[in-house]
Design brief:
Layout (H helix, E strand, L loop, with lengths): L9 E3 L9 E3 L2 H9 L7 E5 L5 E10 L2 E10 L9 E6 L5 H11 L4 E6 L9 H22 L6 E2 L3 E2 H6 L6 E5 L5 E2 H4 L5 E5 L7 H9 L3 E4 L10 H13 L3
Parallel strand pairs: 1-3, 6-7, 6-12, 7-8, 7-9, 10-12, 10-13, 11-13
Antiparallel strand pairs: 2-5, 3-4, 4-5
Helix pairs in contact: 2-3
Length: about 250
């Protein structure tokens, strides 16, 4: 699956966009403008997450801010027709960033970070807030790169037990497990789908049993054990190939 998007630089901004409006780009986008060495008059694309994108032209570029003039709206839909949500055990280092970035490229609708029994990363409240804001920025940058105009929400991290307690409704729930009795293809998944992935070391046995008791189906993905940052991307790619974009 490959997303076709314009090579014109794309920037996310939360501002209300309309023809003729002049807006100041957010600090993160302004830094990107500087890194790309863009100049006044250069064409850019803006989006605010509502599903559309807007042609715009850069105006004043100064250290104190970057301005852009909005031109016309473009109704462009690059979202997957197959709704998939990722529940990911928080993993260490750059692995979580990699999962968020690539999951966004693969069309995930939302990401729920989970704290599990085997989670290596356990952040205090203050650091957790900063880390979650960073994770959301990772998905924003991925949308800018891949052409998506809707940003998948990175939810506040919660304990796995709390997540499972709230797992209700008509949702297909998949737990990737080497010993699973079925496969993604044989299951015939129907959207919306939630894919549950454990952290390094996987879910503890009692967590796996609790997930199965709350409606998750253990599906195998070949005979090999995938790393925590590989499993969600392989699952998302397979779901998109079977039921989504491809």
């Amino acid at each position: 699956m490959q997303v076709s998007a314009s090579r014109t630089p794309r920037f996310y901004c939360e501002a209300s966009l309309s023809p003729g409006a002049t807006i100041e780009l957010p600090e993160r986008a302004a830094r990107h403008v500087a890194a790309l060495r863009l100049a006044p008059g250069d064409a850019v694309v803006l989006f605010n997450g509502d599903g559309d994108e807007w042609a715009a032209t850069l105006g004043r570029i100064e250290k104190r801010g970057v301005m852009a003039s909005v031109r016309e709206r473009r109704a462009v839909d690059r979202e997957s027709p197959f709704e998939v949500h990722l529940a990911q055990g928080v993993c260490a280092g750059d692995r979580m960033d990699l999962v968020l970035q690539k999951a966004t490229e693969l069309g995930v609708a939302s990401i729920q970070p989970l704290v599990t029994a085997r989670s290596i990363v356990r952040l205090a409240a203050e650091r957790r807030g900063r880390r979650e804001a960073h994770w959301q920025n990772v998905t924003i940058a991925a949308c800018e790169q891949c052409g998506r105009n809707r940003v998948p929400v990175v939810k506040a991290s919660i304990p796995l037990a709390d997540f499972l307690a709230g797992a209700t409704g008509a949702v297909t729930r998949l737990l990737l497990a080497p010993e699973g009795e079925t496969t993604i293809r044989a299951l015939g998944a129907r959207p919306p789908v939630t894919v549950l992935i454990g952290p390094e070391g996987g879910l503890a046995p009692e967590e796996r049993e609790l997930a199965l008791a709350t409606g998750f189906v253990a599906v195998r993905f070949g005979p090999r054990i995938l790393r925590t940052e590989t499993a969600p991307l392989a699952a998302l790619a397979a779901l998109q190939a079977l039921y989504g974009d491809c």
